[in-house]
Amino acid sequence: MQFDVIVIGAGAAGMMCAATAGQRGRTVLLLDHAAKLAEKIRISGGGRCNFTNVNARFDCYLSANPHFCRSALAQYTPQDFIAMVERHGIGYHEKKLGQLFCDDGSERIIAMLDEECRLGGVDRRMETAVLSVARGDDGVFAVETSGGRFRSSSLVVATGGLSIPQIGATPLGYQLAEQFGLPVTPLSPALVPLTFHVEDAEIFTPLAGVSIDVEAKAGKGKFRENVLFTHKGVSGPAILQVSSYWQPGMELLLDLMPDGDAERWLEEKGDSEQLIANALSELGWSRRFADAWLDRVGMNKRLKDLGPKQRRQLAEQLHRWCVKPNGTQGYKKAEVTLGGVSTQALSSKTLMAADVPGLFFIGEVVDVTGWLGGYNFQWAWSSGYVAGMNC
Ligand code: FAD
């Protein structure tokens, strides 16, 4: 069968692209090997889909070319997506930091995109495995699938990243890029919990569930949010954010008193009989955490037992507690994949491969990775829309 456009991957970016192209009057086939549409939308945002961030700007994304995403984000903005959500009567609210969530379940977003595809007359085939893709001398793509052979003048690859393989992630998009000569930048799990070395794990495992407000820093990433201790290491928004900047061997720096001046605070406390752990719990620390942390830095004592040098050392530890994670929890727990199809090989205005007319890559498969907080869906919508307008 012949179509104008074949989109591989019925996730966030693929559905947006298919709907946009279909509503332009293109004949579109949307293929996916999974049984259900857009499983990642379904599980996103704790089931409520953090569908965009009103502050989405190019500098909230990691990429070898940080400016690449500018054009798509300008062509289809968070306000454009919010307008679609409102047109479909979907209630939403801002949770924090510009993050918009559905009032009801994330199924509402899937149903909305499904309806938009229907309005575009998109032909959809689920549970359809892609066996091979070829491009003839005439520039027409031939896609061999478990459901037959399809041809099209445009092919859009929207197969997402490698995270959560148990719900359908595969490396097909990266393989297709390589098949057509497009480079792929190194891939790694991102927005992912970090794991501790055994000696730290032994100390902090009993703290699983404790959460504390910090400023976390790794490489060029610096975020003020909560860190959550887990059985294996650290998680929570601050850690997920910096994990995208963390590389093996790198230290993680945590400022445990991000609003205060620890040295001054200790001086003000003076030579009192009070245990330092008690003083820290007055600042909102859990007593369990205060004890474990002070044991770890060798300072579980009374305020009066701190000499001037130790006071300075403790203040330094409070502002620059250095933890050395030994890894991440990997693709099984990562929200996204860092790296992807090189932006050097794609037009930022259309998402089409510069050297392969008609071939597009969109969404997470591209080397554009957003922060935590709705940025990744906004990239999926923007890149999907742009390709949909040009395929
Ligand atoms: P996907 O949505 O992953 O879609 C890819 C599609 O391609 C899938 O349907 C898949 O089945 C299909 N596919 C893969 N391989 C093949 C193949 N070989 N043949 C055929 N089809 C194939 N981002 C946010 O902005 N906000 C959030 O709240 C949020 N929460 C998240 C929560 C979790 C637990 C996870 C894992 C991610 C979350 N993300 C969130 C990230 C977001 O889900 C992704 O960035 C986004 O879905 C990427 O869209 P995509 O269309 O590129 O890929």
TrEMBL record:
One of its GO terms (molecular function) is oxidoreductase activity. Its cofactor is FAD. It comes from the Bacteria. It holds the Pfam family HI0933_like. InterPro entries: BaiN-like, BaiN-like_dom_sf, FAD/NAD-bd_sf, RsdA/BaiN/AoA(So)-like_dom, RsdA/BaiN/AoA(So)_Rossmann. Residues 4-389 form the RsdA/BaiN/AoA(So)-like Rossmann fold-like domain. Keywords: FAD, Flavoprotein, Oxidoreductase. Signal peptide: none annotated. The keyword Ubl conjugation does not apply. Residues 189-336 form the RsdA/BaiN/AoA(So)-like insert domain. Its EC number is 1.14.13.-. PANTHER family: OS12G0638800 PROTEIN (PTHR42887:SF2). This is NAD(P)/FAD-dependent oxidoreductase. It comes from Chromobacterium amazonense.
